Amino acid sequence: MRRRVLPGLPLSLGITLFYAGLIIALPIGALIFKAASLGPEEYWRIVTSGRALASYRVTVLAALIATVFNLVFGLALAWVLVRYSFPGKRLLDAIVDLPFALPTAVAGIALTTLFASNGWFGSLLAEAGIRVAYTPIGIMIAMAFTSLPFIVRTVQPVLEDLDPALEEAAQSLGGTDGEIFRRVILPLLTPALLAGVSLSFARSLGEFGAIIFIAGNQPFETEITALLVFIRLEEYDYQAAAAIASVLLFTAFLMLAATNILQARALRYTARG
Amino acid sequence: MNAQRKPPRIGDSPAIRRILIAFVLFFGAILVVAPLVVIFTQAFSQGFAAFVANIVHPDTRHAILLTVLTALIAVPLNTAFGVAAAWAITKFDFRGKRALIVLIEIPFSISPIVAGVAYLFVYGLQGLFGPALQSADIKILFALPGIVLASMFVTAPFVARELIPLMQAQGRDLEEAATSLGASGWRTFLSVTLPNIRWALLYGVVLCNARVMGEFGAVSVVSGNIRGQTNTLPLHVELLYHDYNTAGAFAAASILTLLALVTIVAKVLLEKQGAGRASRPALAASAKPAASTEGAKP
């Protein structure tokens, strides 16, 4: 154990604990307290009500599809940004972060305008018989937008650090590009991909602002869980709001644990190389 | 960036290259570029004069002021917290450090709606302190303090998560040398630590500010959406949009979009200084003393 010589522990730790306690722990504790005060039967009745279950199904399904899309698109984007050079590449690299920087409400109204049946894309898709705005597809698009940067940004550094010697060795052994990608590169990217996937999925589960404009918000059809919490609040049904919000909270805790484990693994993986 | 190598690497054949670039440009154009374009075309759809009239409308002006005011309070407090947390976590060993890091990270993974609801159960009438606050005639919810608190919750990790991996990688030797030569704690921080972390600090502040000014879900629960009073700019966008004032909504949205674009430019410039991405992936392992050193790019 090293001897402590630096000053400032009481002050810095004091500020940290006070702020984290007041700003983070207190409200979360209050929410859990409120949900717990319902009693198990009442709590269970609320969180397994038909409308709540339907909202979980809508949210999880849309988040899964959005994440799968981002897995493919994010991997391709990271690959293109690391491996190729072409005009506009730096701009593309910068603009990938737009979904993090653009307020979600702004993203929501922009996507809705684009995909409404009279919008630029919505009108084209309507001719093909596909409705996007006010359907679950709209929810998926909003989720795909807001979580777009996660997978790109977790895979990109790993791809940059990939040792070219591995590929050369595989090539000298006669592997085709497809084989080398599948059996040499993809396994090396997997930890980073999984970490990105869990971040992307978690973000999609909790997203609110971008979705409510494009979703249509029909109970049982296009109502996400976060919106159901909001609706219960507006109805002054605070108990139901607390119970359903606590479901989102515990899901977030689970995702946080998963992300931390996957990130730690991804890090060990890259540190070894 | 990798130097161009003589032997072709996999995926370098012209066909695959073209297909992949076309694929990402196609979806990039649909998902990222088109929203940007539509925001500005809609904002100016009734002409420049109408755009200006929408921006200078008293309710929009008030929303801008409230948003700026919120950021002016929340961002400095958040920055102080982030620096204090990074100092405590990286310069000392104490029990429960891992748990503290997880606690700081929590807001990042929580739905903004859940954050807003949680604050309701602290300061609202049906919450822990609500009745006491009401009898003391202190207004927190549906007023500026509630908006600031909710914004501080959602952005709590932003500065700390930039600083912790970087300061972890830089170690304690420089600071220990400075204090053993007789420098005070503040002097050590200001002239030894701060110069080493300034770009990462600024990076965290820029991202924190963008999120505070753009926060929608959490603020929408605690603000009460009172037009001309507790309506921040993102909430005002929603209100105008639901009023079928599309040009007005997009005019207000275009201000927030400009903020986002400025944020991205600042981000790119700061990343050139070594801030951000380089130190980002190390967060999960930052509790361990000998974590990776990849954040140490000068």
The secondary-structure element order of chain A is: HHHHHHHHHHHHHH
Cα-to-Cα separation, first versus last residue of chain A: 30 Å
| Shape type of chain A | globular
Largest interface: A-B, 108 and 116 residues
Determine the mean pLDDT of chain A: 92
Give a nutshell description of this structure:
The complex is a heterodimer of chains A (273) and B (298). By secondary structure, chain A is mainly alpha-helical. Chain A has helices spanning 9-36, 40-47, 50-83, 89-95, 98-101, 104-115, 120-127, 136-146, 148-161, 164-172, 177-206, 209-214, 225-234, 238-272.
Structure notes:
The complex is a heterodimer of chains A (273) and B (298). Chain A has 273 residues and is an all-alpha fold. Chain A has a single domain (39-272), classed as MetI-like (MetI-like fold, Orthogonal Bundle), CATH 1.10.3720.10. Helix content of chain A is 79%, strand content 0%. Chain A has helices spanning 9-36, 40-47, 50-83, 89-95, 98-101, 104-115, 120-127, 136-146, 148-161, 164-172, 177-206, 209-214, 225-234, 238-272. In chain A, helix 1 (9-36) packs across helix 14, helix 3 packs parallel to helix 9 (148-161) and helix 11 runs antiparallel to helix 14. The longest helix of chain A has 35 residues, at 238-272. Chain A starts with 8 loop residues before the first helix and ends with a helix. The mean pLDDT of chain A is 92. Chain B is mainly alpha-helical. Chain B has a single domain, classed as MetI-like fold. Chain B is built from 13 helices and no strands. Chain B has helices at 14-43, 48-56, 58-91, 97-109, 112-123, 130-135, 144-155, 157-170, 173-180, 185-214, 217-223, 233-242, 246-272. In chain B, helix 1 (14-43) crosses helix 13. The radius of gyration of chain B is 23 Å and the shape is globular. The relative contact order of chain B is 0.14. Mean pLDDT of chain B is 89; it is low at 281-298. The interface between A and B is large, with 108 and 116 residues.
